[in-house]
Amino acid sequence: MENNLLSLIIFAPLAGAAINWFVGRRVRDERFIGVVACGSVAISTTVAFYLAFNSAGALRTETPVLDHIWTWLQVGNFRADFALAMDRLSGTYALFITFVGFLIHVFAVGYMHGEAGFYRFFAFLNLFMFSMLTLVLADNFVLMFVGWEGVGLCSYLLIGYYFDRTEAGDAAKKAFITNRIGDWGFVLGIMLTFFVTGSVSFFANPAAGEAAHTALSFFRNQPVETFTAGAIFAGGATSIAVLLFIGAAGKSAQIPLYVWLPDAMAGPTPVSALIHAATMVTAGVYMIVRCSEIFVHAPTAMFIVAIIGAATALFAATIGLAQNDIKKVLAYSTISQLGYMFLACGVGAFVAAIFHVITHAFFKALLFLGSGSVINGMHHEQDMRRMGGLKKYMPITFATMVTGWLAISGVPIFAGFFSKDEILWKTWSAPAFSLPSTGFSKFLWAIGALTAFLTAVYMTRMMVMTFWGKERFRETHDSKHQEPDHHHGPVEPHESPWLMTVPLIVLAVLSTVGGFIGIPYALSSSFSNKDVNVIEHTLEPVVAKVGESPVAAEGEHGAVPATEAAHATHSAEEISAERILALVSVLIALSGIGAGWLLFQARPLLQMPRLLENKYYVDEVYDAVLIQPIKAGSREGLWKLIDIGAIDGLLHSIGEAVTEMGRLARYLQAGFVRGYAAIILLGALILIGVFAYLGFPGV
Amino acid sequence: MEPQLSWYLALSAILFTIGVTGVIIKRNIIAMFMCIELMLNAVNLTFVAFASFFQDVTGQLFVFIVMTVAAAEAAVGLGIIIAIFRNRESLDVDEASILKL
Questions:
Q1: Among B76, B74, B81, which Cα is nearest to B101's?
Q2: Which pLDDT score, from 0 to 100, does residue A540 have?
């Protein structure tokens, strides 16, 4: 189904960016710039909701809404269009990106008040929305990669927004370069996909004359590859999936490429909320779920995804325990939650991953914006050791952040509980498809549960240090952490303006009720027989299922109807097991909060293990193992040896040889005409001699 | 006794050698120029001798072409000689050795 409105979703923010860049920089009126920025995103939001929910909307039918804008590349049988597609998956993504993005834009108008680069900030922010929506709505890998790079660029620009600060510039470069490593894998994955399938499209669009099968549907009839390490290098689905995951690990900050995300907090807080919590970093999850058809044919790749996801979740959570910068805590928390999502992907629970992406977008955006409100109210103080007792001064921020805190900790009825519980349950009950044994799923579950406990602990620590306890912000501070550009005298906190609190309230409501779209049958069945797991029914048809034999799928053209599939799995033992696990999740969350409360309520400045505070020295290790050797190799090898020695040396010696030959040849040009005549004569005689001796050719 | 082809060729070779020797040993530009003409005409003699010997008119056609070119060359060469003389008041080629006037 074609609908040209779809392009409006991406082009409205692009127009907003252009207006703010070219007009806003001259007008320099915050109201104008704010209205343009928020207005363009509001248009996107409205259109996205309309296209998703109208009678033939993307979320209500099984056929995607397509918009073929122009044929972009066509070389031989390689074809990549500038075409958009909104199916149930990209529609879901587009909805929360535009909506959360809109709220963050509104918040940013308040947060960035008085900044000199106001127009620049909003131009970049709108450009980011354009790129992100292009990434999500792209109907082929190549256009998706354009959006992928676009968000990387905007991330770079916005992390480095305070470009006069060294650490912001360094952080921006770090983010960009680390992402390059991931993009390398992504590009290779796209190429391999094309070589294997002959297509880069996600959706068949016969009207536009595309290939009969798409890059994804090609795999539907392929046999599942074996679960061996050798499959990674075999050049089939597993190789593609691993390469794509390298891309996802870069963008979504997974081990070993996560190091850029904590540093990215050098950007303004709305950027952290929008790009580094709610939307961009979940692009990797989106990509994997989009390519779930490939991944379900590649159990080895899924195993890698699950392991990396679980490891990242636990690793980042432990670091998050010991950070003192409020935004750093949230950054490590984001990495940890992203690890959860990858864990879900790795065990085949793609829907649960997307569900967690959505709820995470709500509560993490809320927490980041809340921290932004705190930072704003504290006059740009980010160190929690100098906060405390803020609930009296910032009641709205406090109340909203409490919901975010409860949501991320996994307290029931809040959004995070349902999605996290879903992931834990799916991990527990994962089939042995992508794992060495079913026992291994229990091990992954234990890591997830431990992470959930740690999450509750460090979030409680953050809340306690910020909002409860002694008011530490009036104390004058010793010079231990003195930084020249930070404000360090005693400050008087204040509540933020309504532009900032209203988005907080909206997000707080969503963080509270957002989980109701995915209540598992096991829980809802105790109240009514109706299955109310909306998110699962919505996404089931567009996501490939693990272990579906390729022969069975052949006859039916795709997935079985969603309701049947969902109901078929509800056996009595599973329901009771799921309920028990949900109870365990609740206990973990509450005990985590309790432990955090007991530990930090009385001693908010409790010294944490130095190993954790210093992030396991990963940055230092990377610096010593990778960066310094590369620098030394570049300086001594590439620069001094190759560039100066070989390349410059070669060019210089060519030049010198020419000069030298010219110097010799100059002696021939004596200027004596008779000398030239003699030389000509000599030459003629030699030629004649040669011919006389050898005979004339051809005679 | 009929004139033989070799006679013509021998005469041509003698004329050509005189021309070459003249170009190399003479310092006067006019004399060198005349020696060049001598060489050209020695070649012309060869052409017509061969043309007559092989009963082929092509050689005679070449002579016309050579004469035309020689005429053009004479015009240009004399012009250059006059220009040199006006600048240097001399026709010694060894003095005209700095590649510019």
A1: B81
A2: 84
The region of weakest confidence among A126-135, A189-198, A210-219, A478-487 is A478-487
613-672 of A, contacting B, C-beta below 8 A: 669-672
Residues of B in contact with A674 (CB under 8 A): 23-27, 32, 93-94
B99 and A669 within 8 Å at the Cβ level: the answer is yes
State pLDDT tens for residues A536-569: 888 888 888 876 644 333 333 444 343 444 444 5
pLDDT of residue A558: 40
Q: Using CB atoms and an 8 Å cut-off, which of residues 6-45 of chain B contact chain A?
A: 20, 23-27, 32
Nearest C-alpha in A relative to B100: A671
Interior angle at CA A674, CA A669 and CA A677, nearest 5: 85
Put simply, the answer to whether A681 touches B27 (Cβ < 8 Å) is no
Structure tokens at A292: 């779930």
Please judge whether A677 and B24 are an interchain contact, meaning their C-beta atoms are less than 8 angstroms apart.
Answer: yes
B67 to chain A, any CB pair closer than 8 A? The answer is: no
A70 lies in some domain: no
Cβ distance A673 to B24 less than 8 Å, yes or no, reads: no
**From B94, which residue of chain A is nearest by alpha-carbon distance?**
A672
CATH number of the domain that residue B64 is part of: 1.10.287.3510
Residue carrying the six token digits 């620590």: A461
Spatial CA neighbour of A548 closest among A344, A299, A356, A353:
A299
> How many domains does chain A divide into?
1
Confidence of residue A210 (pLDDT cuts 50, 70, 90): low
User: Would you state the pLDDT for residue A615?
Assistant: 87
- CA A41 to chain centroid: 20
Distance from CA of B1 to the nearest CA of A (A): 31
A693 within domain boundaries: yes
A256: preceding bond cis by omega (within 30 degrees) = yes
Q: Please tell me whether residue A13 adopts helix, strand or coil conformation.
A: helix
The mean predicted confidence, pLDDT, of chain A is 87
Task: Say what the pLDDT of residue A205 is.
Answer: 67
**Domain range enclosing B52:** 27-93
Q: Do A671 and B98 touch (CB under 8 A)?
A: yes
In eight-state DSSP terms, residue A529 is: S
Residue B2 lies in a domain: no
Q: How many domains does chain B have?
A: 1
Residues of the domain holding A684: 669-699
Place of tokens 């989980």: A515
Residue A673's closest chain B neighbor by CA? B93
A678 touches chain B (CB under 8 A): yes
| B94:A670 CB<8 A | no
Answer whether A299's CB lies under 8 Å from A230's CB.
no
SS3 A613: helix
Q: Which segment, A54-58, A232-236, A368-372, A480-484, is predicted with the most confidence on average?
A: A368-372
CB contact under 8 A, A674 and B97: no
Cβ of A674 within 8 Å of Cβ of B98? The answer is no
Interchain pair B20, A681: CB under 8 A: yes
Q: What is the pLDDT of residues A585-626, one digit of tens each?
A: 999 999 999 999 998 888 888 788 888 888 888 888 998 998
H or E element at residue A506: helix A498-513
Question: Is A678 buried (19+), middle (13-18) or exposed (0-12) by CB count in 10 A?
Answer: middle
CB within 8 Å: A674 and B99: no
Identify which of A585, A604, A354, A285 has the alpha carbon closest to the alpha carbon of residue A461.
Answer: A604
Q: Which residues of A touch B93 (CB under 8 A)?
A: 672-674
Judge whether A681 is closer than 8 Å to chain B, CB to CB: yes
Q: How many CA atoms lie within 13 A of B48 on its CB side?
A: 14
* B80 CB-contact burial (10 Å; exposed 0-12 / middle 13-18 / buried 19+): middle
**Residue A282 domain-assigned?**
no
Residue B100, chain A, CB below 8 Å: the answer is: no
Assigned token pair, A631: 């620098």
